[in-house]
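Known limitations

Files may contain more than one protein. Parsers should not assume a single record per file. Below, a two-record file is shown to illustrate correct handling: read the sequence, read the token line, then continue until end of file.
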Amino acid sequence: MIWERSRATAAGVVVGLVLVAVGALLGRPDVAVLGAAPLVAGVWDWRRRPSTDPAVRLEASDEPPAAGSLRADIVTAAPADVLLGVRRGVRVLAEAWVRVDRTRRLPLVVHTVRTGPQEVAFVDVQGVGPGAASVSEPSAPASRSALVLPAPRPLGDLPLPPRLRGLTGAHESRRPGEGGGLRDVHPFSPGDRLRRIDWRVTARRAPDLHELYVRREHALAEAVVVLVVDSRDDVGPDPMTWRGSTPAKPEDPTSLDLARQAAASAAQGFLDLGDRVGLDDLGALRRPLPPGGGRRQLDRIRHALALTRPEGDPLRRLRAPQIPSGALVLLFSTFLDDEAALVASVWRRAGHRVIAVDVLPTLRERQLGERERLAMRLIRMAREDRLAELVDLDVELVTWRDQPHIALASLARRAQRRAGASR
């Protein structure tokens, strides 16, 4: 870098020379003295200009990450003060004059509503010499990428698949076993445990104890849930950004941000109940995350969700992804084309309970022109017809942008009213 004389110092030196010259020509020593001060100060500070260049870098912060926040440390190395600029995209976050004694570390916290891989910020510095007499060229911008995991939101009651699997879990099945509610009282037979004998019923039905009666219970089982995210679309609330020429605003969550949050929330809710949850991506031909349980499975799902993104042209599958037998399927999509609706209908015809979660953001159409309004009307009509066909196929619909916990609780109660549901 090259240190240059600042404009203010250059102007001061020029004014000082003029005053000294005018004082000498007119014989006015007082005027010459007024010009000597900025002249001497400018020359002296210019001779003291630094010889090394300032540098800046972004390092990982020691502070624990928080939901919706990106943290990093700005490390500046400079022989003098610097002008620090922080920007994110085209938006300037901060500009400050920072005093530096060789090295200084400053914390940086950026709030975001977006998820997935993204840049924390771009930071550059410009050195300022003693007395602000000299300035350096701006340094190359330093940046640091981060992976923002979706933050789950609490949900209430959740729907269950038609059939439960496994020998353990938190849900009562129709199979005889242990841990659930009372199934019936039955005469003692080989294989029954002695601790299951109901002495009150035995005393009432067989006072002479010629026959023993045992209490039989329902077995507890677990649900298998597969979350399917449609990553082919990542659209914001402004339809003018859908063409891709203009990016969505950083403060606007996109459809994929809503899908990540919705899938993470559902995963947390089912895993807290002891169920097994898996993850698949409708927009990528990669190995799905098999169903599993526990806290580590939630971490794996959140990390995989953060990595989902559109990859090139929208993918058209030759067949729908394979789903485990008897699993509940939650499909998170905008349903702007027929692909997601097609695979949902295939799963429903195969006997799975399918819940379509609409993650299209609330659209802003006030700034659209007449042609754009007509195009959006056609898109909306086609999308509504697509969703109506899914409802006719008994695919249940939930809109995430409204109040999803109420809709999911309603679906859970609806399943309980069905004869033999969730058993």
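...continuing to the second record:
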Amino acid sequence: MSRNRKSGTVSIIPNLNIIDIAEEGKGVGKADELVIFVDKAVPGDVADVRIIKKKKNFAEAVIESLNKASELRTDPFCQHFGTCGGCKWQHMGYEAQLKFKHKNVEAALQRLAKIDTTGMEPILGSAENKYYRNKLEYTFSNKRWLNKEDIAERGVLEEGPDTEGPDPDLEMNALGFHVPLRFDKILDIQHCYLQAEPSNTIRNSVRAYALENSMSFYDLRNHEGSLRNLIIRTSSTGEVMVVVVFAYVGQEKAEGLMEHLKLSFPAITALLYIINQKKNDTIFDQDVITYSGRDHIFEEMDGLKFKIGPKSFYQTNSDQAHELYKITREFAGFSGNELVYDLYTGAGTIANFIAGNVKQVIGIEYVPTAIDDAKFNSHLNKIDNTIFYAGDMKDILTREFIAAHGKPDVVITDPPRAGMHADVVARLLEMEADKIVYVSCNAATQARDLALLKEKYEVLRIKPVDMFPHTQHVENVVLLKFVGSAV
């Protein structure tokens, strides 16, 4: 191994065996008890790696020489791989991705909750691992991320007293995704494999129109410019929603772009725009203006219709969400006479999905607009055995609430990544529902909550579900059965 002459620290580690993969798509190896995260490495690789950053307990490295390629390695399919923050596992075959996702869930439950996972069911892979998302949000920026080719060919002028700086002929406007750890730099996306057409065609058409008509792209540091965000939603029914978010724009310029979209893409079902001059990108507190068509689209699942507005929450992998909900329903094992509490109900998708199998569903969600959607969707599908409440879970789910609505037979809980508040877990232990079906997008926080619920519950079934191929993210469904207080 070579050493830095000044500091004496190791800079090159030869023949490092990559034994695991981390969340950010980096391979993991060990050398002299030092954990090393290697960019773009795959378990099974053997490589000479160069240390680029070293901390007390770990180091970061890049591959200097790939001596043996892993059998799990595959060629990335996207030209933006390695710069874009999405699809960080695409250099590893999909079956291998599933294996490591399953392993990560298992490790979290074993390590953090001391749960026996010997009966854990195989992970359910996604039938489609490209073009599976129904929603993407792009960002406009006047500070495009320059790749190595840009810099090498014409991105930076020769250094000198008057010539240092970017090539004035280089196009710096971009419409795409944030570069990881660089809030003000946007990678200009040519083709994204996450969302099916007409997503790519619409995005590229918007960019071309904006450039041809000298529309300014947003400056994320100085908060100025006309074009800010572009949101595209599609549905399995073939409907398309496009939302253009403007910042500082004249009415004529805004309507020019909207009319271009209307005429160029008659298949757009809902063509909307928003004027957002805040310093953050959130649109939940902004007025939405309908330029053409409806202010919503419809999704269908299991014979039910769901209204999707620009601010609605809906699982971004529609097909796999259907599989996830079927597993949730199966785990609950309904007989038809249950009272169900659906915690963190969102737009009431699970509540409405299971309503035909139970006596009554009570859904609770923090976001009022999501509850409005949940109620609308029940009415739309002629479902009359759902009740929805908006508010903070720990404040709504009180003893008085349970006394008024009845003790549930089954609780379904699908919290955000942070998991459930300790007060909510305490209330679950207090109410002693016969079954809890815990759906989670974060195995670590799920394990934390399960460790607390073990006081009165036994884990009967565990099944991971892959909602997001080529990423580290994985959903996990756990069935818990009430067994009484431990003595």
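Parsers that stop after the first record will miss the second one. For reference, the second record is described as follows. The chain is about 25% helix and 30% strand.
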